[in-house]
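Quick entry, no commentary yet.
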Amino acid sequence: MSEHHDQSTSSEREPNRKPNRLIHEQSPYLRQHAYNPVDWYPWGSEALERAKSENKPILLSIGYSACHWCHVMERESFEDERIARLMNENFIAIKVDREERPDLDQIYMDAVQMITGRGGWPLTMFLTPDARPFFGGTYWPPEDRQGMPGFPKVLTAVANAYRSGAHEVTHNVEKLTIALGALSQYDAPEGELKSDAAVTAARSLAGAYDSINGGIGGAPKFPNTFVFSLFLRVFIGEGDESMADMVRHTLKRMAHGGIYDQIGGGFHRYSVDDRWLVPHFEKMLYDNAQLAVLYADAGRALNEPEFLQLSGDILDYLLREMTSPEGGFYSSQDADSEGVEGKFFVWSPEEVEQIVGPELTDIAERYFDISIEGNFEGENILHRTIEVPEMARMFDKSEEEIETALRSIREKLKSARDRRVHPGRDDKILTAWNAMTISAFAVGYRALHEQRYLDAATRAADFIMSRMWDGHALKRSYKDGQARFNAYLEDYALLADAMIDLYEASLERKWLDSARVMADVMLDRFLDRERGGFFFTSEDHEALITRSKAAFDGSTPSGNSAAVMALLRLADYTGDERYRKEAARALGLFHEFIEKQPFGFSHMLEAVDRYFRGPVEVVLAAAEDSPEFREWFERIGLLYVPNLTIFAAPPEPTQTEGRYLPEQIRGKHQIDGKITAYVCRDRVCTPPITDFRSLEAELTD
């Protein structure tokens, strides 16, 4: 495993400074601020009670470890003695890691978007002592710059307004409190969700497709994984080749761009331009987990071996650099190293020639588009503008010779890069993000048949269930041997989904049982019994100014879309109508938003597609330990079948006596002693199938 370095902290810049309260926190992000001259508090009763007793407004600063502009604001403002004095004299300063406390981040991000019309991190909010917001923004520079007021000017103006009891403060508090409360008070609209909603939404989203560079919209450009996953579903369900073309083009452009780490594997968070060249260099666990699945799905659906290989490369990167000794997965890698954004990832022509040698330099420079001018602040972000066959013709070599040369170039560059100062790594383990990664390894195992991927998924699932689940409730975050913070809806929902994926990769019943446990907790502690849908926090969570109901999909699924998908899948496996009923209620509650704002509900639309199309049930009747069963099971994994639900049935009817059997496998058994498959849709099943080619045709035609 590559060596990684902790984030550069204020203690390194001010080694003699006394630490503040954040020194006792687990979060690497909070600990980065432990030697600031700011009198920081973590979120909690101590800070809130002091604000009330001294009648001081709260300055709430929210960010995360891999956030470049969070580091910039820390260096420019929180390290500045004069600015820190302004903060300490006029405010109770609270620092929050958004990854540990997405409940707080969601509430106050909603608030800043209402105030400014935009959001982002670092999030800087000003609250009354009872934690109600009245003003906020994101990054502020240390002095007036490019039309932005300097942070000291903002601090002074806010402090004066609060002390004077300005009418504007009171008005903002009342207006924002009402508006935030309304965000969770959805009422089911008139009418019903249309059965073609997913297809209609996909075609609407296609209107924003960038036909030149791939992806949705212009710069900055995010992978938008769920949009392209939805396109894949519509391609399969409707036979719409335009959907396949958009997925294929986008995934190729991303894989060839600078957003993909051409040397070490894994995707950066997004591209600052519209052609995937210059990334924001942080790498997030959730992006790579979701993209590993998308590339595996697209590789199978579109018969693109390059996509399957890239899915495996992402998973290998996660195993190599993002896996803890205990089996969980770390959260992120920073954009900066040695205080410079992207320094770890860029190259000069001189470096490349020195590392790969003169005989390979021309090939390296042409393949990765390396130039003297560079493409990023005088340096080169490696990306690809040419294919191997073209390289072979250009250099008068065989394709195999070019492939061999490129492997050597990559190995040499990676070996040299590994000796650089690495970006910081946030090594806390988050349940929801680990769940997405368990899903990625489970899907990767099915698509690629690499045992290490199933082993990684199993080990991580065992870690979560032994360290972060106490038999009653999940915890959100784990670090240094300690699990902390009540888990949120997304943690339970995504873990339920991951357990189903792990069951489908292994057919071990215990994983399906674990998924049911998580779903039952969602129904018991998160469900809005009156209106439907699910709250972000459980009934026994800390009381906040509002109990939000997250519905919009962002870079990760919303808790509600993940819950709906997990419940629909469980209903298909268990026949438990509670699961289907509450999934349907949630879809009904949000259906107006789903139809009007498809981009914000792209994963929910995948659940809509599943809801209306229903499952594709495959029953394999054979001894599970037989070679024939394993062969068929593995070959099914090579197919992309949305909504697949798979069951194993005993080969003979006599082997089912006295056992509980799911309804789907009752009466299904081997024919003439041969492994036998049954495919069922809408409660109608095919005749017994004893030839795999016929099964494949049934599943893919």
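second:
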Amino acid sequence: MPGGDVTHTSPTVRSADGAGPLVPAALASAGAGIIHATAVGSHGEHAGMVRLFILAAVVQIAVALFALLRPTARAAAIGLIGANAVAFVFWGVTRAVGIGWIDGLQRPEPLGLADSFAALLAVAAVVGGTIVLVGRVLPTSQVPVAGAALLVVALSVPAMVDAASHDHTHDHAHTDDHAHTDDHDHTDDHAHTDDHDHAHGDDADHDHHDDDHDHTDDHDQTDDHEHEHTDDHEHGATAGVALEQPTWPRPWDPTGPIDFSGVPGVTPEQQARAEQLVADTLEVLPRFADVESIAELGFRSIGDARTGFEHFINTDYIFDEHFLDPRHPESLVYEVDGDERTLVSAMFIASNRPVDDPELLDFAGPLMEWHVHDNLCWGLDDDGNPAVKAVTDDHGGVCPPGTVLAGGDNPMVHVWIAPHDCGPFAALEGHGAGQAATGVQQRADQCAHDHHDGHDGHDGNDGNDGNDGHDGHDHGDAVVPPEPYDPDLPIDLGGVEGVTPEQQAFAENLVARTLWYLPQWADPEVAEAAGFRSIGDGGTGHEHYVQWDWIDDDVWLDPNYPESLVYEPQPDGSKKLVSAMYMLPSDMSLDDIPDWGGRLMQWHIHDDLCFTRDTEAPRVGAVIEIGGECPDHLQKMDPAPMIHVWIRPHECGPFAALDGVGAGQVAEGEEHFCNHAHGAH
């Protein structure tokens, strides 16, 4: 218009008084980039992640510098929005599902301080750039800019410190000073303290198991429930002292460092993957601790609770896209204690591939053994759900009528969040071990039970090497060549006619748990501090210590709370722990005992012993005829059913009774059973 002012527009955003409107957003982007640059050094083991952090740092810092130089340029706003939006989306994906094609990010990462602050700064940059781009410019005087700068520094500095010290194994540091935080403290599943309060009578409702089996999402078991071991039973290295690591497999303690180093044939990549899998499982799996809540997720029991371990399977997870993902475990394993279920392991299942698939074998190399169960016969339970009914081993290689052979050819592997003497990937005993690609002698998920080095009563060196059990003794009705019982070898109690797979598995698991936990009582002084008292029968060659308060409680067959301990007096005056003697409540008869282990487990009573009237430590004062009366100064105890579980080789197997008076009385119509099929001679 002639004589009027002409206003020329340019591709810029509107500016307010003071500093440029993009300065706060640019500072936020620069802060996020600096955090990513700091994180490079702590992820050097993953080349893909290093390149990703470098790229993010360069781009975020570059767009920040451009915005500081051109604080009113539209291109600067678009650059801030685009770079930081991509960074935020990428961060969200790595936390939600992982990125399979980037080494180190194959599985979801947990939230951390550094990455969370970097994501927050990226969001601030996107919001600031968007506000400017749409024309809603706020005044940016020096005071708000200074405040923004201080906020960026407040977020960036602690995030950079965290990023520089970040351990990519989710803080499961592989050092001797490793410690789990309070909300992830994996102590012994069967934690025990000497001041343990046993409930009795009407109040005995497993109160004393609440702490032992409290696997909440926080997984918090404090030091008050710390499982007490003697020095010889500690695993891992003492701070500042490098202990020689044994070969593989080796005992697994989830409270210690996750360190699978020193195993021949294992590459650094395989070790890192195995350690990462265990760390992830320890962190994530406890969300499934409540067995009552997993049904709504699709988990169903396979009906094997009688074995001592119950598997719950989610068939939808078997055929989904997740692989070795503790957020989507194909099977959950719970230890059974009456009505209690304690989560102890995940069992990951890989579908539609052979057990020797190269991808499976390469994942952790010799550290991990995949196995199958191609001998399981399935039927329907009372609710119409699939359940294991039999194994082909006991039926001439075929399934019995009414069952089908199915589902067991998918490779599977355990990852334990509870202690296990055969390592974090251990298979179960007996039928639970399944079939692996390698021979039994080479399997990496089974081991000798000799991890209690230095523990009296569990060194297997009692003059019986357990290797000559087939020397002409009658093996009863064995249908396959049985193995002698040797606690230094994998436990196999098969080969006895009339024993079901469930009974065999129950017996094998009871022996395995006893071998693992009972040596905590190797020192009689430790036992006495827990309330055990000798009954004064050491002159027989075996001395029984009884915890009288534990007989009539509601805890059965638990080596953390054994009713009686059996020691062998030694020539030097010491006492060697050789057996547990589990006792059921005194109001039970031999006819009331569940048929847990069938013929393998023969219970007995003692109705011929008279004890002193000492209320704290009764001692055997006389032996009378069965059914007789004790002298006035002595008393007869109610005859509680009892059974031994030996932690050393025994010529009559792991559940053998003593000889002579110590053998007690068995159920009417039975004879004392010496299990030569599994005896060590």
